[in-house]
């Protein structure tokens, strides 16, 4: 399963922090950002992705996070 999120994380150092937080809670997931995309894409892949929990983690770090359809 792959989930794609639109964020406002613009810099690599902040993206790394968000990725670390997500991996702390979900070590089995593959997580990365595409900061060159205009939507600052967060891509999360795994056998099961808890979309709402991922969003809550990103939002708790102070960033926008919306699911892209």
Topology:
Layout: E1 2-7, H1 12-25, E2 30-34, E3 41-45, H2 51-60, E4 65-67
Antiparallel strand pairs: 1-3, 1-4, 2-3
Structural class by sheet pairing and helices: alpha+beta
Radius of gyration from the alpha-carbon trace, in angstroms: 11 Å
Distance between termini? 14 Å
CATH architecture: 2-Layer Sandwich
The helix content is 25-40%
Biggest sheet strand line-up: 2-3-1-4
Number of distinct helices: 2
> Main beta sheet: strand number and arrangement?
4 strands, antiparallel
User: Runs with pLDDT <50, length 5+?
Assistant: none
Describe the structure in your own words.
- The structure is a single chain.
- By secondary structure, the protein is α+β, with helices and mostly antiparallel strands.
- The protein has one domain (2-67): Alpha-Beta Plaits, CATH 3.30.70.
- The protein contains 2 helices and 4 strands; from the N terminus they run E-H-E-E-H-E.
- It has a 4-stranded antiparallel sheet with strand order 2-3-1-4, covered by helices on one side.
- It is globular, with a radius of gyration of 11 Å.
In short:
The chain has 69 residues and is an alpha+beta fold. Helix content is 35%, strand content 28%.
What are its keywords?
4 strands, Alpha-Beta Plaits, alpha+beta, four-stranded antiparallel β-sheet, globular, 69 residues, 35% helix, 2 helices
């Amino acid at each position: 399963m792959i989930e794609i999120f639109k964020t406002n994380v613009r810099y690599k150092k902040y993206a790394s922090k968000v990725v670390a937080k997500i991996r702390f809670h979900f070590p089995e997931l593959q997580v990365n950002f595409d900061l060159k995309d205009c939507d600052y894409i967060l891509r999360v892949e795994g056998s099961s992705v808890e979309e709402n929990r991922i969003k809550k983690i990103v939002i708790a770090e102070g960033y926008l996070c919306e699911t892209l359809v």
